Amino acid sequence: MEQHASIGRNMSIAYKYFRLYLRDALKPYDLNMAEGTVLLSLYEKDGTTEKQIFDSLQPAVWRTQDQIIEELHYDRGVMTRTMKSLEEKEYVLRFDNPADSRSYIFSLTQKALDFKPILIGMLSEWNTWLLEGISASALKTAEKALAVMAKNAAKHSKE
Length: 159
What we know:
Strand order of the largest sheet: 1-3-2
Shape: globular
CATH superfamily: Winged helix-like DNA-binding domain superfamily/Winged helix DNA-binding domain
Radius of gyration: 18 Å
CATH architecture: Orthogonal Bundle
Number of strands: 3
CATH class: Mainly Alpha
């Protein structure tokens, strides 16, 4: 086990520098890392506007706060503050959830959709820097190993 200690240390170091990079890159847009991460989740799973939600009336296009918490493994309090901030900054719209009156559904605004290529560009730049000098075969092996590690971490989590 001791021989693999550098894996965790290196993952921690990479994550630390990613957080610093994203913090600095998002600062000019008055966003923090949690807000950027939530936007990415919504881009991937939602991407609908208010009009599309009410035109379609299909719950599959809505994202509840609980769904986002489950996907991102965020604390409920952090997520509540993050969603409130994104709503105040006009990146998301909040609606009563017709399926559960105790929760809300969220959708992206046009402002958020316009920001998507900027945020994707930030992540692309980071990935270019991070993956510099890594062969395609080594990257494929690393992706598989990290996927297993993430699954194991979730499985054995005390949350």
